[in-house]
Design brief:
Blueprint (H helix, E strand, L loop, with lengths): L4 E5 L6 H15 L3 E6 L9 H5 L3 E5 L6 H15 L3 E5 L19 E5 L5 H6 L2 H4 L5 E5 L11 E4 L13 H7 L11 E4 L4 H18 L5 E5 L22 E3 L12 E5 L2 H10 L3 E4 L8 H4 L9 H12 L13 H14 L2
Parallel strand pairs: 1-2, 1-4, 2-3, 4-5, 5-6, 6-7, 8-9, 8-11, 9-10, 11-12
Protein name: Glycosyl transferase family 28 C-terminal domain-containing protein
Organism: Myxococcus llanfairpwllgwyngyllgogerychwyrndrobwllllantysiliogogogochensis
Length: 346
C-alpha cells in the first residue's frame, strides 16, 4: 500500500532513537509513503536529518526539556495534524514518560513497536508486557528483546541509516578523515556520541590514544554536528600541540570503510555499524536508564576500564589485526515491507 501517512515516534536522549527511526523513514518515503519523525534529542537541532531523509519525510523536533504533559500535548497535536495510518513507536511502548499509554487503546490506526533490549527493571516496574499488547506488530531489529517471542514479533537484520552504495570507499573515507593517500597505517577512530559530556570524554580518550600509539597509527576523534563546534583554544595560553580536535562527521557509517579500529560506547548504532562493516570495535559500556550496553557488547568488544581499552586498541594496531568481512543486510527495507504487508494491508 503506497502513499500512506506514517508517524514515527523516536523520543529519547542521544542519537540512537532518531538514527534508527530515520533509517526506517527514508526507506518508507522512497516507497511513496509520507513520513513524519518526531524526536526530542538534544542532537537533533544540529544534525541535518532532512538532507539524509530526502523528499517525502519530515522531522518534527521537540524541546528536550518539555514536561510530560507538554510532550503528551505535542504528540496529540501531531496525531491530529498528521492523521497517520500507521504509528511506529521506537523502544518505549508506553512512550518515553508514559504519555502514550492512555492514548494507544483508542487510536484507530496501525500500531508498530520497534522492540529492542530494555532494562528488566523498567519492563517489570511499568508492566511493559501489557503495553506491547496495544501493538499490531513488534519489529525486533537485530538484537534480542524481552518479548521477541511474542506471536506478533518479527526479527529483522539491524536497521542502518545508509544503504551499502552510500558508504564512501576506503580511500574516500580516509581522505575525509584527513589521512594522506600514501599513509597505509591503520586508522583508529574514537566515536563521540550519547551526550555532550560523552562527546568531550571521547576527545580526551582520542588524545591519550594518540599519545600511546605515537607514529604507529593516526587517531581521529569523530563527533556529530553540535554546540562543541568550533572548538576554541583554552583562554589561558595556547593549547597543547597534541590535543586532538574533533572531525565533524554524520552519519558516521559513511566513513566506516576507512576506519580500521573503532573506539566508542555500546549504543545500538555504534555497535551495529561496526559489525555490519566488519570494523573491530573496542567499547566502554555507558550507564543508561533503559539500555544495557554491556549486554549488547560481545566479550571481545567490551573494555571494562579505560586502561583495558588502551591495551586492546594497542594490540589491534599490531600487524596481525584483520578486518572481518562485511555483513550488510537491508533490515529497514524488510521492516517497511512487513509494515506494508501486515499492518497497512490488513
Amino acid at each position: 500500500m503506497a502513499g500512506a501517512r506514517w508517524l514515527i515516534y523516536a523520543l529519547g536522549g542521544g542519537m540512537g532513537h532518531f538514527t534508527r527511526a530515520c533509517g526506517l523513514a527514508r526507506v518508507a518515503a522512497r516507497r511513496g509513503h509520507r513520513v513524519t519523525v518526531v524526536t526530542n534529542s538534544v542532537f537533533a537541532p544540529d544534525v541535518p536529518l532532512e538532507d539524509v531523509l530526502g523528499a517525502g519525510a519530515h522531522v518534527h523536533r521537540l524541546n528536550p526539556d518539555l514536561a510530560k504533559s507538554a510532550v503528551r500535548e505535542a504528540v496529540e497535536c501531531l496525531l491530529d495534524g498528521v492523521r497517520p495510518e500507521v504509528l511506529v513507536v521506537d523502544t518505549f511502548p508506553r512512550g518515553l514518560a508514559g504519555e502514550l499509554a492512555p492514548m494507544l487503546p483508542g487510536l484507530r490506526m496501525g500500531k508498530v513497536l520497534v522492540h529492542r533490549d530494555l532494562n528488566p527493571t523498567y519492563v517489570a516496574r511499568f508492566n511493559v508486557a501489557a503495553a506491547v499488547e496495544d501493538f499490531d506488530l513488534l519489529l525486533v531489529p537485530g538484537e534480542d528483546a524481552p518479548f521477541s517471542q511474542h506471536p506478533r514479533a518479527v526479527r529483522t537484520a539491524p536497521w542502518l541509516l545508509l544503504e551499502r552504495d552510500e558508504w564512501l570507499s576506503r580511500a574516500q573515507a580516509r581522505e575525509r578523515l584527513g589521512v594522506a593517500a600514501d599513509d597505509i597505517r591503520p586508522l583508529v577512530a574514537v566515536m563521540g556520541s550519547g551526550n555532550a559530556e560523552e562527546v568531550a570524554e571521547a576527545g580526551a580518550i582520542a588524545t591519550r590514544l594518540q599519545e600511546r600509539l605515537g607514529a604507529s597509527a593516526p587517531v581521529r576523534w569523530l563527533a556529530p554536528p553540535g554546540p562543541w563546534f568550533p572548538v576554541r583554544a583554552p583562554s589561558s595560553g595556547a593549547p597543547e600541540r597534541n590535543v586532538l580536535q574533533p572531525v565533524r562527521v554524520w552519519p558516521a557509517l559513511a566513513v566506516m570503510p576507512g576506519v580500521d579500529i573503532l573506539v566508542g560506547a555500546g549504543g545500538y548504532n555504534t555497535v551495529q555499524e561496526a559489525r555490519v562493516t566488519g570494523t573491530p570495535l573496542v567499547a566502554l559500556a555507558r550507564a543508561r536508564r533503559y539500555d544495557r550496553q554491556a549486554v549488547r557488547l560481545r566479550p571481545e568488544e567490551l573494555a571494562r576500564t579505560e586502561a583495558e581499552l588502551m591495551e586492546r586498541v594497542a594490540a589491534l594496531v599490531g600487524p596481525r589485526s584483520a578486518r572481518a568481512p562485511e555483513t550488510y543486510s537491508g533490515g529497514a527495507r524488510d521492516a517497511v515491507a512487513l509494515i506494508e504487508r501486515t499492518v497497512l494491508n490488513a
